[in-house]
Amino acid sequence: MATLAPHEKKHKVTVVGSGNWGSAIAKIVAENTKAHPDLFEQEVQMWVFEEETTVPESSKKYDASSELSTKPQKLTKLINHFHENVKYLPNIALPHNLVANPSLQDSVKGSSILIFNLPHQFIGGLCDQMKGHILPYARGISCIKGVNVSSDGISLFSESIGAKLEIYCGALSGANIANEVAQEKFCETTIAYDPPAMDSQNPTPKGPTPKSSQLDLTKITDSTESKLTGRKKKLRPMPSEFPPVDHALMKTLFHRSYFHVRVVSDVAGVSLGGALKNIVALAAGFVSGLGWGDNAKAAIMRVGLLEMVKFGKMFFAESVHTGTFTEESAGVADLITSCSGGRNFRCARMSVEEGVGIGVVEKRELNGQMLQGTSTAREVNGFLRMRGLEREFPLLTAVQRILEGEADVKNLPDLIEGDA
Ligand SMILES: NC(=O)c1ccc[n+]([C@@H]2O[C@H](COP(=O)([O-])OP(=O)(O)OC[C@H]3O[C@@H](n4cnc5c(N)ncnc54)[C@H](O)[C@@H]3O)[C@@H](O)[C@H]2O)c1
Ligand SMILES: O=P(O)(O)OC[C@H](O)CO
């Protein structure tokens, strides 16, 4: 068999997850694999946590005369038939080259790029199931907003995915409310990719070159992730037959006219921004629920941003750049959008307005989608408490105390100053 010329192999891409954001990102990626057939196989696999569901009557796909609409069906069947995720991203057309697959192991088979996008509580178990079924030189991007807290301490999902699967994994996060992105309303995002030097030695890929002002190809250093886990030796280089997976390729895979990508190297800052802003958004929702207005929300956001920066400096000192929180979409912009219209904000506001637990609102309002702020608040609080550091992060601490019913939302002004 003839050997392929360098870079003549194409990347196969799998999205692990198919919720609200998982489906929106899969749409973007499938649009781009189609637009760049020189770099990517056109078909994108999307792993779906299989469930039986019905087409909602409000859906444009609902047809009262069809059993597909009137009887419960497998979600993968509905997605592949209608090219729409009728449950988690209704009324958004998905590209026909996006294939829903209920088998995790089959969906990741042969993929050189794996995109992880699902509620953070499920990722550990899924990685265990993927072990031994992925290409050893695959590269990952985590779109998960959360942190991994265990008895060993705190780590980023890019780190824990990388460590479990022995691959390199970067992160994508930004001011990205999924429904707006899926409707192709303009937004920005931040991708953090700090690949091992062995990948960066490959020549620049073919295809469109992103603007140099948005790339930082000089900053390819040993990642803190590699230092932390000692995984560097185990990482397999991307074979030279493939286009190198670098900042330029990441931009080509994710950038759309309505989804502007900036690529940086600060994986810790990008991941932490996405995780911690969910806790701040709950606090913003609480004060909004009291009817306190925009000034109160701005105060919460100011204190929240400072605590996010402090958290990064205290626990990820080697790698975090403060600028990621203050200048990138993954930092301050995500904080603003999340405190304006995110699910955490909206559910927290309703819970205070109605005087009911946030879990009740989540179940009633989100149709199976999941809040990440409540579990992240609990996990981060457990981590701080174990170290006697709750007082250093009064807002993060106050949110957990309110969720547990130990503190009153009305006392937030004093709580966030550490006075209550
Ligand atoms: N939705 C957004 O606007 C948005 C935007 C940016 C980032 N994010 C982040 O993206 C990540 C994924 O969020 P999402 O909105 O796609 O999820 P979601 O809130 O829509 O969650 C539902 C998903 O969880 C899956 N699920 C349920 N039980 C499961 C199980 N036992 N095992 C595996 N999967 C199971 C469902 O099948 C569904 O795909 C989160 O970290 C979130 O914070 C979300
Ligand atoms: O709806 P939320 O609160 O999970 O936030 C969604 C996104 O993270 C906003 O960027």
From TrEMBL:
Report the EC number(s), separated by commas if there are several.
1.1.1.8
Output the Gene3D superfamilies linked to this UniProt entry.
N-(1-d-carboxylethyl)-l-norvaline Dehydrogenase, domain 2, NAD(P)-binding Rossmann-like Domain
Q: Name one GO biological process term.
A: glycerol-3-phosphate catabolic process
A GO CC term attached to the entry? nucleus
Q: Does the keyword NAD apply?
A: yes
The uppermost taxa in this organism's lineage are:
Eukaryota, Fungi, Dikarya, Ascomycota, Pezizomycotina
Q: Which reaction equations make up its catalytic activity?
A: sn-glycerol 3-phosphate + NAD(+) = dihydroxyacetone phosphate + NADH + H(+)
Keywords recorded for this protein, A-Z: NAD, Oxidoreductase
| Pfam families assigned | NAD_Gly3P_dh_C, NAD_Gly3P_dh_N
This chain belongs to the protein called Glycerol-3-phosphate dehydrogenase [NAD(+)]
Q: Where is the composition biased (Polar residues)?
A: 199-220
The UniProt entry's sequence similarity note says: Belongs to the NAD-dependent glycerol-3-phosphate dehydrogenase family.
Domain spans labelled Glycerol-3-phosphate dehydrogenase NAD-dependent C-terminal? 266-412
Ranges for the region named Disordered are 197-220
